[in-house]
């Protein structure tokens, strides 16, 4: 059993003690892992006191109310960020200041709980932030030298289980089908085939998750910067997504000069195009359209990917670049993904000193606009 | 299908594995009751004594199968227990009941790798049930 230290910053004593009560007997645990997490709450009534506590103690999670008597929650968040303090932050905020919460998540808060919240809502949010923390630390341990052996073993054991289960399931169904175990009527086997495909899909996104996670989180990617043709990469990405686009009756259009060069690592450019393009196709509608525009503007390269898909709400947009975020709704049901694609792009773009913006309207479509310097500083 | 009037308790959190194993066992003539986790299995055991239990190792927790096996043995010492798992050598975890100490610690009669062939399983079941 591990205990996570939680700092609760709120000027209302009632809320602080309420949170303390809810978390007192709350335990987050993970299937297959030894570790269980309980929570130890420390209370702070002001931002100033919170910063004081942060400087003299180690906290894992901070629950921050924004409206505080002195400096407000956002400023505490900024303090945590600028001092690179390893605390996962969750904002507590009233519905009226939802915009602010959204801003906070863009500024590095992991998530937020709107006030008033039920014990269930708080627990769900704590569950998610704990998992986030756990994964982050586990990958860091694995990336570091020594000491990470236990974490690595545990990870491999879970991984092995998670990857072997679908193999066993699919193998089992294939054997049943080969031996015609439920008779000669082919249609009777449809459900087994569907289940097999589903398990394979789940396995694929799991593998993608892991690859992305280990590569990016360890921060040890070595880049080979050279002259890269963006248009050529766009063509390649279109080529590889074409089967899916065809299946979903989505038309892809490219508007670009014949060639357009910039200094980059070609695998980064590949990730950018593949991720954005596959999203644009996956979250599109039947007979939808994807338009890719690439152009140079002075010293900046602009890539615009526009789709006529299902779009997103403001709230969804705010968490879009966070890790493991997958917008879950009736419309996205059945679309598989790793939940890491956009956070990967964001990381790449940041490292190139570029920026990425997104505009979206539910049921109308989404536009991603990416700007990269033609000659990024040495990476 | 020859009915041999023996009930197997099958516990696994993987619905596909549960479906496939149930199918296999029923084809071999067993009556099968299933549970998808440790808790559900414990509830079942309150009401019913199976002739044999086939348990997955990793369910709610990494060692759910062991715990369940331990509880089952305490309640019904004479019911043979098989623990099945997909985790083997490459993880550094191998649970073969070779030494006496291991047998004492792991309260199961047999450890099996998932993906066992039907005839192998049948043989083991017959042996444990003295059929």
What is the gist of this entry?
By secondary structure, chain A is α/β, with parallel strands linked by helices.
What would you say this structure looks like, in words?
The complex is a heterodimer of chains A (379) and B (131). In chain A, 46% of the residues lie in helices and 22% in strands. With 379 residues, chain A is an alpha/beta fold. Chain A folds into 3 domains: 2-142, Response regulator (Rossmann fold, 3-Layer(aba) Sandwich), CATH 3.40.50; 149-217; 226-373, Histidine kinase-like ATPase, C-terminal domain (Heat Shock Protein 90, 2-Layer Sandwich), CATH 3.30.565. In chain A, a hairpin with a 3-residue loop joins strand 12 (355-361) and strand 13 (365-373). In chain A, helix 2 packs parallel to helix 3 and helix 9 (266-282) runs antiparallel to helix 11 (341-351). The two termini of chain A are 41 Å apart. The radius of gyration of chain B is 14 Å and the shape is globular. Chain B has a 5-stranded parallel sheet, with helices on both faces. Chain B has 131 residues and is α/β, with parallel strands linked by helices. Chain B has one domain (7-128): Response regulator (Rossmann fold).
- Helix count of chain A equals 11
Helix percentage range of chain A: 40-55%
Tally the structural domains of chain A: 3
- Which regions of chain A have little confidence, pLDDT < 50, spanning 5+ residues? 144-148
Number of separate strands of chain B: 5
Report the principal-axis shape of chain A: globular
């Amino acid at each position: 059993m591990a205990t996570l230290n939680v700092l609760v910053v709120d000027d209302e004593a009632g809320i602080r003690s309420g949170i303390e009560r809810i978390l007192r007997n709350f335990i987050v645990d993970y299937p297959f892992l030894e570790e269980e997490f309980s929570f130890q709450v420390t209370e702070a009534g002001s931002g100033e006191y919170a910063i004081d506590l942060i400087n003299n103690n180690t906290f894992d999670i901070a629950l921050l109310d924004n409206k505080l008597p002195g400096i407000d929650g956002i400023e505490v968040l900024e303090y945590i960020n600028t001092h690179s303090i390893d605390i996962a932050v969750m904002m507590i905020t009233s519905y009226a200041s939802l915009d602010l919460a959204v801003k906070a998540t863009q500024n590095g808060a992991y998530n937020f709980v709107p006030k008033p919240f039920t014990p269930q809502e708080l627990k769900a949010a704590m569950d998610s932030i704990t998992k986030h923390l756990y994964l982050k630390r586990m990958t860091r341990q694995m990336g570091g030298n020594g000491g990470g052996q236990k974490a690595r073993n545990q990870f491999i054991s879970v991984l092995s289980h998670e990857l072997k289960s679908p193999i066993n399931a699919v193998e089992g169904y294939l054997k049943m089908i080969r031996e015609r175990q439920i008779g000669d009527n082919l249609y009777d086997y449809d459900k087994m085939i569907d289940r097999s495909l589903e398990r394979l899909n789940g396995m694929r996104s799991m593998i993608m998750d892991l690859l992305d996670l280990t590569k990016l989180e360890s921060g040890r990617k070595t880049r080979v910067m050279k002259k890269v043709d963006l248009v050529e990469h766009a063509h390649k990405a279109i080529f590889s997504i074409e089967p899916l686009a065809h299946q979903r009756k989505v038309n892809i259009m490219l508007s670009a000069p014949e060639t357009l060069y910039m200094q980059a690592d070609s695998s980064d450019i590949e990730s950018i195009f593949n991720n954005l393009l596959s999203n644009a196709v996956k979250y599109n509608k039947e007979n939808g359209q994807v338009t890719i525009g690439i152009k140079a503007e002075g010293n900046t390269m602009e890539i615009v990917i526009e789709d006529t898909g299902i779009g997103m709400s403001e709230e969804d947009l705010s968490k879009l670049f966070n890790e493991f975020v997958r917008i879950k709704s009736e419309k996205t049901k059945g679309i598989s993904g790793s939940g890491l694609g956009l956070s990967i792009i964001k990381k790449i773009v940041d490292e190139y000193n570029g920026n990425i913006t997104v505009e979206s309207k539910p049921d109308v479509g989404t536009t991603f606009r990416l700007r990269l310097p033609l000659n990024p500083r040495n990476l | 299908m020859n009915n041999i009037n023996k009930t197997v308790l099958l516990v696994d959190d993987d619905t596909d594995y549960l479906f496939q194993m149930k199918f296999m066992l029923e084809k071999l003539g067993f009556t099968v009751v299933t549970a998808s986790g440790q808790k559900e299995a414990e509830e079942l055991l309150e009401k019913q004594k199976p002739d044999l239990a086939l348990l997955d190792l990793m369910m709610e927790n990494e060692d759910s199968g062991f715990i369940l096996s331990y509880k089952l043995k305490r309640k019904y010492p004479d019911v043979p227990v098989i623990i099945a798992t997909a985790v083997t050598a490459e993880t550094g975890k191998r649970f073969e009941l070779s030494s006496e100490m291991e047998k004492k610690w792991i309260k199961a009669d047999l450890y099996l790798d998932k993906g066992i062939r039907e005839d192998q399983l049948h043989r083991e079941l017959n042996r444990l049930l003295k059929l």
